[in-house]
Amino acid sequence: KIHAHGALAGAELWYGGARSANMMTREVALELNTVPNGVGHPFQSRAMDKADIITFRRWHRKAAIRARDAGFDVIYVYATHGYLLANFLDPKRNTRGDEYGGNMENRTRLVRELIEETKVAVGDKCAVAVRFAADEEVGEDGVPVTGERRDMFEMLANMPDLWDINIANYDVEMGVSRFTKEAALEPYMDFVKSVTDKPVVSVGRFTSPDTMVSQIKRGVIDLIGAARPSIADPFLPSKIDAGDVGSIRECIGCNVCYSGDSLGVPIRCTQNPTMGEEWRKGWHPEKMHPKGSESLILIVGAGPAGLEAALALGRRGYNVMLAEASRELGGRVRREATLPGMSEYIRVKDYREQQLIEMPNVEIFRESHLTAEDVHAVGADHVVLATGARWRIERYDGNAYVAIVPKDINQTILTPDDIMDGKMPKGPTLIYDEDSYYLGGVIAEKISTAGIEVIYATPNDVVSKWTENTSERWRIQSHLMKLGIKLVLSKSLYSFDGNGAEMRCEYSGLSENLKVESLVMVTQRQVNRDLFDTLMDGVKGDHENLPFSLTRIGDCDAPAIIAAAVYAGHRYARQLDTRIDVDEPLIHDRLDVGQTPEGAYLINEE
Prior knowledge:
Layout: E1 10-13, E2 30-31, E3 46-47, H1 50-69, E4 74-79, H2 84-89, H3 104-107, H4 109-122, E5 127-133, E6 137-138, E7 144-145, H5 149-156, E8 162-166, H6 170-173, H7 192-195, E9 200-202, H8 209-217, E10 223-224, H9 227-232, H10 236-241, H11 256-263, E11 296-300, H12 304-316, E12 319-323, H13 332-336, H14 347-357, E13 362-365, H15 372-378, E14 382-385, E15 389-391, E16 395-396, E17 401-402, H16 416-420, E18 429-433, H17 439-448, E19 454-457, H18 473-482, E20 486-488, E21 491-496, E22 501-505, E23 511-514, E24 518-522, E25 525-527, H19 530-537, E26 549-552, H20 562-575, E27 591-596, E28 599-602
Parallel strand pairs: 1-4, 2-3, 4-5, 5-8, 8-9, 9-10, 11-12, 11-14, 12-13, 14-26, 18-19, 18-24, 19-20
Antiparallel strand pairs: 6-7, 15-25, 16-17, 21-22, 22-23, 27-28
């Protein structure tokens, strides 16, 4: 099917070495030497002897043949990202005393052998690509440390059919937009095209067609690699080709897509709510089934959920009224995009707002704070509440929300909402982060750069714990430390009186008093459900007595990440006037494994 659409398919043949514990197969990991597992598992690798190297080459050759026979067009030799082949190339790690270690010719020997053997194995049926880092490390000042990479690259320059160039530090290559901007890899690979005659592809979270064209015209690369941008908009190339640049859903660089890999769940995307749902829900990123009725839909709230619901409903052909209490659309994304490093998040709003403006069947009403009476007066068939949520000043102790300030003390506590409204704390300030995503660190940075002493505290063992899933936690913690922000970890906040905050260790229970004058709570959120409650009170809690259907979506329903709000809006629009089995909403295949020589097959296939 890939070929039927005029595309090529590539297979990256990968061996993790010490970065893989092989938890499923329970095979011992092979490496240059016996070293600890690279991602923290309590295992060590086995040092490869010559017999192991011969075995490994055979595995690689057989894998290449299987990939060729499966119909792949490009077969990779994967020599980067700290995996086995990258370690053979690394002068710091490769301390072997045989012909595969020592000088550069020896350290490149295995990669050269694999390139040659893969080309022989696949013949003229496939191209052979090599993924290779153009640097050895990122220097402390941010300047690439190339080391002997250029000499190594010259040695290999014309062996493969294609070069896939990246950099050694995956956290930088895969960096979120807060820290890594578009085309950030260019300084690391400015020598590559001057050395090889083979085509070169690289990434850089390219979102601007102008930037892509510039890289090609200036001879930086020959092919644009666009993984995350293609997740946000799978039709990115065809839209550029058609000159329809305005309809591109630009990646915001949040790495929520990567979190699916980290968590072992289906991929998802903030900008593209259909990502990962193409098969199990039948959603297409560019196609919507037509409306199921002539209903009028009123959406209250133009944050990420409301905007996406209006856009998707409009594309289905419904008449939609979108009411927003403020002058500007966007809700939380508009506000969060004003914080340090978060500017690209505004694309969630900008894309949807621009598309909606062009829709004649969608009306937008700004500065329209609707009451229950207003909602009834509209006469809509369906009412959708997307009124968002606000940050709490309490903390959750595992059982209930509890107050931090004693009842007899009149002390103001700030939240992210206050900071985004322009309020700033006075004096030394504690940022207490139970949210564990990016916002606590961003708020701490904003206050610190205003010249205010900041202490960041969390009950977790690390800063912004959930961002481990988006490959940014290390960057966040090191960034806060460079800003001079004191980090207090594994301690929960119990009280604050305006002169200090009592913290208790999560492990020992021992208390510590932090001398601070202000407190910003980044904990949980309270849904804005006043309008919903008023509407329901009017019918004594009975939905059946309303003259319209009433649904809450996004943070107004259950506070979560922006991607969840966009998804909620899209799901509502897709499912309106359709038959959905709420007991079994996803497509499932029943597998019968091991009944045929070919292995598993689908029971419902003929």
